[in-house]
């Protein structure tokens, strides 16, 4: 059964925890692009996927969050884009047990669309398509467009993904503000839900930015605004700076204790974002499975 069928049948799927903070824990320097490790440290990237699958993840994201031409270009890696993304997917695929799914991670380009920035919608769409095609060749089963704050950019990514025939998961990052939850670009939960669905997303949701309690509120608002299944990936709390390093302190059991509320709100996929570890996923698996 495919990903969407499993959710429709009522199964709650577990996705993975953090990728960036996992790799930093293995020695990736802060500020270095995690995607470079697909080529320089493939064994670590494969082990990360193996650790999450062993902890109970049904879905593992590829290490390709910043693998678009704009971001890789800043690292001098644009000519290796295909290799970086194909390898990202192939590494996760090679660690997947039977039934384990690989979701191609697509993060923001870091650019603004015209007239705010200098990138045209066509250029941005092309950038997403190029990355996504490489992820498909590497073995992705679905796309996870994540940590989006601009709806026009997120919608272009969803449209590009929707042409490739795989399930499209799309999440945005919300913060609490004077008018309720909105992204840093001012997109409310309701506007996001409508815009992502209209662009063709199969599953919508939220990741990053918040700890689990706030994420429960966001999930409830999304569930009210949309009939689509939700994907919710919370940070392990808000980052606290210790010696210049961001530390996330929500414990696995604490996050797991809120999973039932996420399911009630409409979540079909639950996982973690920054600061969550295989131990967090294991604790969630105990509650969900
Ligand atoms: Zn995050």
Describe this structure in words.
This protein has 289 residues and is α/β, with parallel strands linked by helices. It has one domain (3-288): Alpha-Beta Barrel (TIM Barrel). It contains 13 helices and 12 strands. It has helices at 3-8, 20-25, 37-40, 42-55, 69-74, 81-95, 121-138, 151-162, 189-199, 212-225, 252-256, 259-265, 278-288; strands at residues 13-14, 59-61, 101-106, 142-148, 168-172, 175-177, 180-182, 203-207, 230-234, 240-242, 245-247, 267-272. The strands form 3 sheets. Strands 1-12-9-8-5-4-3-2 form an 8-stranded parallel beta sheet. Strands 6-7 form a two-stranded antiparallel ribbon. 56% of the residues are buried. The mean pLDDT is 97. It binds zinc ion (ZN). Zinc ion is lined by residues 208, 235, 273-274.
Radius of gyration: 17 Å
Biggest beta-sheet profile: 8 strands, parallel
Beta-strand share of residues: 15-25%
The CATH H-level homologous superfamily? Homocysteine-binding-like domain
CATH topology category name: TIM Barrel
Q: Provide mean pLDDT, rounded.
A: 97
Intertermini distance: 17 Å
Number of domains: 1
Enumerate the strands of the largest sheet in spatial order, edge to edge or round the barrel: 1-12-9-8-5-4-3-2
- By helix and strand content, what is the structural category? alpha/beta
- CATH architectural label: Alpha-Beta Barrel
Shape category:
globular
Q: DSSP helix count?
A: 13
CATH class: Alpha Beta
Task: Give the helices and strands as they follow along the chain.
Answer: HEHHHEHHEHEHEEEHEHEEEHHEH
Question: What ligands can be seen in this structure?
Answer: zinc ion
Number of strands: 12
Query: pLDDT under 50 segments (min length 5)?
Result: none
